[in-house]
Amino acid sequence: MNFVEELKWRGMLHDTMPGTEEQLQKEMTLAYVGIDPTADSLHIGHLVSVMMLKHLQLCGHKPIALLGGATGMIGDPSGKSQERNLLDIETLRKNQEEIKKQLAKFLNFEENAPNTALLVNNYDWMCHYSFLDFIRDIGKHITVNYMMAKDSVKKRLSGEGEGMSFTEFTYQLVQGYDFLHLFQNYGCKLQMGGSDQWGNITTGTELIRRKTGGEAFALVCPLITKADGGKFGKTEQGNIWLDPEKTSPYQFYQFWLNCSDEDSKKYIRIFTLFEKEQIEQMEKEHEEAPHLRILQKALAKDVTCRVHSEEEYNAAVVASDILFGKGTAASLSALPEKTFLSVFEGVPQVKIDKTIIEQGINIVDFLTDATQIFPSKGEARRTLKENGVSINKEKITDTYMVNLSSVLNEKYILVQRGKKNYYIVTL
């Protein structure tokens, strides 16, 4: 497979340096992507560059994931207007271990093949490099004029944000040295990243040329955006993380399922391994029956299974059915507590003492005196007569008794008033 052609039809190619495609067609090429380890999990914004490495490996080339243990202690100015907080070594190491587990779901680190993926950490070669040695060996090869001409530097110096520290100004040199190190020690000839990284990457190719006379290449993908102009991967709750503790598998699945038609056409090419013909067939079926959301469902299933598991995906589907009316009492009681809480996140919660229901309490008293879900007993009785109240997804009458058998996960009762109003009663 031709890697550049693969990226082109997937909408994952923004720019390349001349000679990049020829290099990739000539021989198995080592290529790397830098990943910032400032959190102990990747979020879906990282997945674009991870998928570039995945496609690279599938095309027979060797991917290197570089964790920026050293550069993560500085902060990359590209696309940012503020300097960010720096991390200590212990935190960075912990973050790296967690990130490696997540990368292993995409890249093959195990097989003893020529193109087995590598994971490296730039802290390992930067930690013993003295400042004096660095400015003597590296700094003299790149002029200040060259560094000032970069867009990421120009924007900050022209008044966006609070200016730029010397630390951040030197970032492109440190990243350039990473490329030089990988070029000299691993034979890595290509660096990839988002289009905002073009300046940093080309500093690396220039450093390699000036210091060794060798030739290296750059390839960048477009920055992924949403059709409505919003930032990809951001919700009201913040980032969509790969760590299930930070973003539940249900919320993760829902993010992809709720993509617009326009976005899902773009994302299914970028974030899945479906082939062109499969995607075109799905698009055709989607256009014929858009209400079935074929693209969104295929996208959500593929990415959720890859990042979490098929079991978590199935649980997310069941949970979605519950929220949107197709669920049953049995499927609700089978939900793990974390999934249950993530499905009904934001639903009003009422806390009551467990003793209130131990002997059993009539539903009308439960809905009024015990929980105040209804303001009056008359309104509660009227709604019950109209078949408008459910306990744990089952319609009930005014003779229903709430007791310990009504409890889910040993502490919750789900009350539904009408079609859309839910309440969680917590014992």
Mean pLDDT: 90
**Radius of gyration based on Cα positions:** 27 Å
Q: Which class do the helix and strand fractions yield?
A: alpha/beta
Strand content bin = 5-15%
Largest pleated sheet: 6 strands, mixed
Distance between the termini: 58 Å
- Which of globular, elongated, flat, extended, rod-shaped describes the shape? elongated
Number of β-strand runs: 15
Total helix count? 21
Helix content: 40-55%
Low-confidence stretches: 79-83
Strand order, sheet with most strands? 1-6-5-2-3-4
Describe this structure in words.
- The protein has 427 residues and is an alpha/beta fold.
- It contains 21 helices and 15 strands.
- The chain has a 6-stranded mixed sheet with strand order 1-6-5-2-3-4, with helices on both faces. It has a 5-stranded mixed sheet with strand order 9-15-14-11-12, with no helix packed on it. A two-stranded antiparallel ribbon has the order 7-8.
- α11 links the parallel β5 and β6.
- The longest helix is centred in the middle third of the chain and has 16 residues.
- It is elongated.
- The N and C termini lie far apart (58 Å).
- About 1% of the residues have low confidence.
